[in-house]
Amino acid sequence: MENERVRGNPAGITNMHVATNIRAARQSIGMDLRTMSVKLTEVGRKISPSGISKIENGDRRVDVDDLTAIAYLLRTTPAALLTPPSDGVEVTGVSSRFLPEEIQAWVAGRVKLTPDDLLRYWKEERFNASSYVKRFEDALAQYDQGQLGLTPREVYEERLATQRARLELATGRLVQLDPLAIPNLD
User: Whole-prediction pTM value?
Assistant: First the structure.
């Protein structure tokens, strides 16, 4: 039996997120591959235009030094380049049991994917949504009393509905994470 030597791990889904995000960021500022290559060389990260194309197609990996230089040149952040699409929850090496929002917040450095920190995150999100619900209910009450503002009533009604849905999501997620958390919220 012959032993095959395997070098490194194959590129994963996170590599594809990075590839897609780099291309989108580059195109959004109107930078072509040659210009990006020249600018990368100027900052000490020599990558040919074909190398950048391979990165954007997912055929070449990006090391962390390249990632930071690319993020800087593209006027974004390394976290933004690592972030999966808003509906994506899959990233390399991370359990798929997390919500897309939790993955997005984790990549952005706003939450750790631990039970305690997820509870903290969702309690904060629930508090914020609850505060906005109160604010928009108060604004609508002012409309009912004839105190019209510059913002149309429909805008406040839409914002109220959005924040009520957010409050419901946060409450539901808290119950999933810790069924005993809800009595301690109010």
Answer: 0.73
